[in-house]
């Protein structure tokens, strides 16, 4: 059990741990009607009704209703004058769709969202903290094997480097 240890931003470690609900990944296939089976591990946290929206990358994001409300409120607070903020609003709010799971845990992913994420048949559902990411399996594998992942694994900016200084050893 995580104790209520204060963090720097006025929250506690246990509050942060409670907020990070999704992790792991599952491979599935869409059926002929464009329905996706949500893994049982995610169903309770996601809720029967939830929100699916286009993601930053070529994927979809799935949010519980409560998490979507928090995320949408953050977007709405962004200054309107910024062109990038307006683009962010358009990207997320205009693509957001309420979906509902049936008794078998299936949800219909609208065609325009499948097209946006280039999802055809085989998919990966990845738990990414407060949301799920839904990827075309080929694009998911490409993203994990990309040069960007090499940069993440090996690239440290000197200013952001929190590794211990071992130069004197």
Written overview of the protein:
By secondary structure, the protein is of the alpha+beta class. The protein has one domain: Chemotaxis protein chec, CATH 3.40.1550.20. The chain contains seven helices and eight strands. The strands form two sheets. A six-stranded antiparallel sheet has the order 1-7-8-4-3-5. Strand 3 and strand 4 (60-64) form a beta hairpin. The protein is globular. It starts with 12 loop residues before the first helix and ends in a 15-residue tail after the last helix.
- The average pLDDT score comes to 81
H-E order: HEEHEEHHEEHEEHH
Annotated CATH architecture: 3-Layer(aba) Sandwich
Instruction: Provide the low-confidence segments as ranges.
Output: 1-17, 163-169
Count of strand segments? 8
CATH class: Alpha Beta
Q: What percent of residues adopt helix (DSSP H or I)?
A: 25-40%
Shape: globular
